Amino acid sequence: MNDLTIAPPREQSLLFADLVGSTRLYEILGDSEALRVVSVVVAKMESTVSAQQGRVVKTIGDEVMATFATPTEAAQAATAMMRGIEQGLPGVDLPLQLRIGFHHGPVLEAEGDVFGDTVNTAARLVRLAKPGQIMTSSAAVAHLSPHFKQMARNLERFSLKGKHEEFAVYELLWSEPENATILSGRETVAALLASLTAGAHLTLKHRQGSFTLSPARPTAHFGRAQDSDIVVDDQRVSRRHAKIELRRDKFVLVDESSNGTYVRFENRDEILLRREEMVLHGKGCFGLGNSTLDAAAATLVHFESA
Questions:
Q1: Where are the domains of the chain?
Q2: Which CATH number fits domain 7-177: 2.30.110.10, 2.40.40.20, 3.30.70.1230, 3.40.50.1970?
Q3: How far is it, in rounded angstroms, from Cα 276 to Cα 279?
Q4: What is the DSSP string of 144-211?
């Protein structure tokens, strides 16, 4: 860096946005189609950055790195990206998800690139984010507009690589009802969460019976363990094989097993999850440690979202 012309540090918001599971896309779709889908997603993220007066610093495969003058602009871009992917992209008939992290602080610029602790912290925040989640910092939240401040949920303090002290991390809630308004007075993030999940229902059917997940019953566990919601006595099934949990208004299937969980949406090809997770939507089924094509299997669970 000795030969670079480095501008004085300037306060900026640094954002990373990453397409979840792009490696799996290449396995499922093949190289050409997967590259096309990734390119469409990256182009959408780039255009969203520009629309919010940001600057794309670089793209790295399926990840976009961008800077904004303020955390509010970064938050606007992050939420717009999430909603754009959720609504679907032209020519992309796949359930896709992003994870996003952004931080605010002094940034060094040299020959169009950016450097410094703010950049490193934003990169660690995006790695901390789960699929469909926006993570940010107390430094960014402190400079957000009132609207976005009330959408920020204080999670806990995390140990981030390179940080000597635990770091305060926030989740920025982005999945709002169309008629949502800015919270005021004594209304809290908890009230917003309740409104986001109010209409979420997922019906599960197994040969043991059926039940429905909802805000009143937001999780279900599957495995050989006797305290599971669905107990499956099969050697291919782990004791704690998988779980479904309600996150905002979406039900997420999380594989925790040795042999994986096979997922098949209606009229779609089967997908194998290995220590990964996926949003369940519409109709379909999943097999615990066993292909869904074995329709008579005790390992098969059918789902349908309301």
A1: 7-177, 202-305
A2: 3.30.70.1230
A3: 11
A4: S-HHHHTTEEEEEEE--TT-SS-EEEEEE-----TT-----TT--HHHHHHHHHTT--EEEEETTEEE
Measured CA to CA in angstroms, residue 103 lies from 14, 113, 145, 148 at distances of 6, 16, 15, 14
pLDDT of residue 196: 44
pLDDT at 193 over 90: no
If one counts every other C-beta atom within 10 angstroms of the C-beta of residue 61, the result is 11
Phi, psi of 189 (to 5 degrees): -60, -35
pLDDT at 265 over 70: yes
pLDDT at residue 177, rounded to an integer? 44
Q: Are 187 and 291 in contact (CB under 8 A)?
A: no
> In CATH, what is the architecture of 202-305?
Sandwich (2.60)
What is the distance between the alpha carbons of residues 294 and 283, in angstroms, rounded to a whole number? 17
Tokens of 176: 């709002």
C-beta atoms surrounding 274 within 10 Å: 11
pLDDT in tens, 207-261: 888 999 988 888 999 999 999 999 999 999 999 999 999 877 788 899 999 999 9
Q: What is the pLDDT of residue 9?
A: 85
Helix (H, G, I), strand (E, B) or coil at 19: strand
Residue 152 bridge partners (DSSP): 172
Residues 7-43 pLDDT 10s: 688 999 999 999 988 888 888 888 898 899 999 999 9
